[in-house]
UniProtKB/TrEMBL annotation:
NCBIfam families associated with the record: 16S rRNA (cytosine(1402)-N(4))-methyltransferase RsmH
Listed name of the protein: Ribosomal RNA small subunit methyltransferase H
One function term, GO molecular function aspect: rRNA (cytosine-N4-)-methyltransferase activity
Major localization class: cytoplasm
Origin species: Synergistes jonesii
Protein family membership: Belongs to the methyltransferase superfamily. RsmH family.
GO cellular component: cytoplasm
Protein localization: Cytoplasm
Organism lineage string: Bacteria, Thermotogati, Synergistota, Synergistia, Synergistales
Gene3D superfamilies the record matches: Putative methyltransferase TM0872, insert domain (1.10.150.170), Vaccinia Virus protein VP39 (3.40.50.150)
EC number: 2.1.1.199
Sorted UniProt keywords: Cytoplasm, Methyltransferase, rRNA processing, S-adenosyl-L-methionine, Transferase
InterPro entries: RsmH, SAM-dep_MeTrfase_MraW_recog, SAM-dependent_MTases_sf
Keyword Methyltransferase found: yes
């Protein structure tokens, strides 16, 4: 099993440790099982339900967690259905809920999954893939979507300044018989569309935001998160905590606003009031953590 550094692990363990009666945890994003195994290790009385919509992630997580059997259950579902836990026998509320959003290293490093702008692979990006695959791949979306829809996706989900120019370039290429089936082809086209000085000014890979936007659209990530937050509020026990680690401002904004709404409704409080970011040491050791923001909501007792 590969070495794996779960993001803001110390902070997550501390937040779980503050919950008075910590019996049941839900890891909504098992991934490689890094946070989940650390939680099970640190709190020997804990039972953990873990969701992941990606079969490979579930397999990897189950292997990492095997030594804690039977203190966990892996659930093959989208976390938007988190409230369905209430229908499970013996479930009496979650004392700690964790979301570590986005893609896992496993998904990013496997070119075949199509998430990476650095390695050439099929333009897929569906978190459910192989025999589980449903819905449109990124390639299908790029073939079908109108100029307006593409612009909106790139602007809203990628916060890409050149959303319109890139969408226009893609549609024009399509009209001239061009096809985008590989990640490398999309990267090459974005590079062709954007003038060199613009690319130099962008700081970072010119296709990074386009890949992020397509991933969010293909996996309906914003709606899934919105439903999941509502579901989490329903199943959180009194005195329990929900912790969300997000990696881009869209997600973080949604989490911040939802937590504030819960607070205004008298359901509990944000603790701490502001987002927590990784230490300089962590960022130096794990580059992926650089954009992470952690927000924690504690439900009233
Ligand atoms: C950043 S990784 C989690 C890493 C994990 N915390 C660890 O320490 O190994 C995010 C995981 O969430 C999963 N995921 C993303 N959106 C999801 C959703 N809507 N429902 C279920 N799983 C989801 C992805 O498949 C991925 O495996």
């Amino acid at each position: 099993m590969k070495e794996h550094f779960p993001v803001m692990l110390k902070e997550i363990l501390a937040a779980a440790g503050e919950v008075k009666e910590l019996r049941t945890a839900v890891d909504a994003t098992l991934g490689l099982g890094g946070h989940a195994s650390a939680l099970l290790e640190a709190f020997p009385q804990l039972f953990l339900y873990g969701f992941d919509r990606d079969a490979e992630a579930r397999e990897e997580a189950a292997a990492r967690l095997a030594k804690f059997s039977p203190r966990f259950e892996v659930i093959a579902d989208n976390f938007r259905n988190i409230a369905s836990l209430r229908e499970m026998e013996g479930f009496r509320g979650a004392d700690f809920i964790l979301f570590d959003l986005g893609v896992s290293n496993l998904q990013l490093t496997e070119a075949e999954r199509g998430f990476s702008f650095q390695n050439d692979g099929p333009l897929d990006m569906r978190m459910e893939h192989g025999s589980d695959a449903s819905g449109e791949s990124a390639a299908d979306l790029l073939k079908r979507a109108s100029l307006q829809e593409l612009t909106k996706i790139f602007r809203e989900y990628g916060e890409e300044r050149y959303a319109y120019e890139i969408a226009k370039g893609i549609v024009r290429d399509r009209e001239h018989g061009g096809e985008l089936n590989r990640t490398g082809e999309l990267v090459a086209l974005v590079r062709k569309i954007l003038p060199a000085p613009v690319q130099r000014r962008m700081g970072g890979h010119p296709a990074r935001k386009i890949f992020q936007a397509l991933r969010i659209a293909v996996n309906d990530e914003m709606d899934a998160l919105s439903e999941a937050l509502d579901g989490a509020a329903e199943i959180l026990s009194p005195g329990g905590a929900a912790a969300v680690i997000s990696y881009h401002s869209l997600e973080d904004r949604m989490v911040k606003l939802r937590f504030r709404k819960w607070k205004d409704e008298g359901k509990g409080e944000l603790r701490p009031r502001k987002a927590v970011i990784p230490s300089e040491d962590e960022i130096a050791n794990n580059y992926k953590s650089r954009s992470a923001k952690l927000r924690i909501f504690v439900k009233s007792e």
